Amino acid sequence: MMYYPTFDLFDDLFTSNSRNDFMKCDIVEKEDKYQLSMEMPGIKKENIHMELKNGYLKIGATTTENKEDKDSQGKVLRKERFSGSYSRSFYVGNNISQEDIKASFDNGELTILIPKNAPAKVEENHFIPIE
């Protein structure tokens, strides 16, 4: 079978990795907190933002990617640009404040620590005696 480099261009169009699997998250329960570890390869720390609103922690990221392939003479065979944004949301409860959440970013992995809440006390019924 002969090799046709042109077909590689079509293969890349139809078989390139999907960005749908971006921001995969592992959640580990520790004694006093939850640890979220999120994969974010190729993302810069300054392009990540987190927001806590109405009990939901929203994590977002943006990326821009430029790719250029040249042959041995420097002739451009393909030039692609990609720009996108991603987000995930997690319900953390209304008793968590922004100051309670700690986050770090290292080697393409975002680690978020969220303290566990003490279970909310269920208020007991207080009956009023009728005289």
Automatic annotation (TrEMBL):
Family recorded in the similarity comment: Belongs to the small heat shock protein (HSP20) family.
Alphabetized SUPFAM superfamilies for the sequence: HSP20-like chaperones
UniProt superkingdom: Bacteria
Species for this entry: Floccifex porci
Pfam families tied to this protein: HSP20
Protein name: Hsp20/alpha crystallin family protein
SHSP domain ranges (all copies): 13-131
